């Protein structure tokens, strides 16, 4: 068995395999190698007697502080040889967290719910990070060993079973990955080489542009390709790309897009890169031939914020700007509300306008809720906790009838009553207390009392965040689910409703009444206090039953 690790500038590196220590030999590139038989292994750098896991570990059966374990990707019995993939344009995404999607919180238990997603009409399942992180429960964004799948979920074979099962049902899989930072516990990469370059808001940032960064970039790129090639995923959602500091002429994300496109050609199926970005910069989703990075799409928070304010009336914090007259119309028609315009939350101008003549709407993900927008509320309350089912239905209708790529957060489709709260399970008491204190202070600054903020380390916070699937037996929840199903089915049946052309899309907004024009089809949502006359035409779907459109209802007419 060949063991290798990149550790430039060190005088000695040893590998302990199945309890026995062996010397390693260095080549000219700073890589150390040893041929040894065995499966469980750790590295020792210089004279440090602390065993370190492999930065490129493929399995961590005992957690991020334990030894790495040899894993053979070729041994898994895949059954998806006929899978041809799922293209992003026209698709509906569904975001879920493995640990709270089911009571068991495993890949295998999640498989039992895939038929629910098929019935809903989903095309792509977006899975929150499954890389190895400290503790048993967490959101996954504090990963430190990016190539190893979290063992409590089911490890690498468990994730492969999930992807294989999804493909057998016609569902693609998008995996959330984090390349902007390492987690605060178990991040040992800097012991080996110049992996880190300062810190950002969440932890150590990677050195992708300074001295020694060629191998660090390769570390990131190889990880991205691994998920596509060895785990058969169909897309990656790239977390907070605005926090990746890269001053090279070719940005890391452009380089990633180039290599992923090349792999897609070889695999003969579409592979998508979807960015999360706070920059409102259309270059991320502009094709490389036109000078952009060539990413397939990006999350669009402005669309969420405009919809959230319109539906809930909340205007605190970064929602303030979206309380402007016709903010929803402006954002729906242009994807970005802040497009070289003033942002009061940032106290500066922000963003850049997109070219609607050449940029299709499917490059922007639209959502009413997601893990961040729910989980980063003090109590993790969902929209259904503060608005009526009629208001939620209007929001869903706008989302599914827009030219953007819609995404549903787990449980949203039946107005789940369970919250989605922030939770972690760090073993270090000091770190756990720091997370607990920091969380409470963050929300105290926004007027929340400490008793109102759930303890992120308390196991009950995880339990409270798990979906309650028995709610589907409640007629009220079932009615919301049926509305979501009908809206998705209607989007499939009438291509006008998924038409991504932004230059032929218009919105009318008269205070609390919004009309979307989709070719010959109109969606009219009334959140006002008075009835709105219903226009003549064939009714394709309606939550109103009379000749008018009453408040908190919608009608789709052709």
UniProtKB/TrEMBL annotation:
Keywords: Carbohydrate metabolism, Cytoplasm, Glycosidase, Hydrolase. It catalyses: hydrolysis of (1->4)-alpha-D-glucosidic linkage in 4-alpha-D-[(1->4)-alpha-D-glucanosyl]n trehalose to yield trehalose and (1->4)-alpha-D-glucan. It comes from the Bacteria. Pathway: Glycan biosynthesis; trehalose biosynthesis. Residues 69-466 form the Glycosyl hydrolase family 13 catalytic domain. CDD domains: AmyAc_GTHase (cd11325), E_set_MTHase_like_N (cd02853). Belongs to the glycosyl hydrolase 13 family. This is Malto-oligosyltrehalose trehalohydrolase. The gene is treZ.
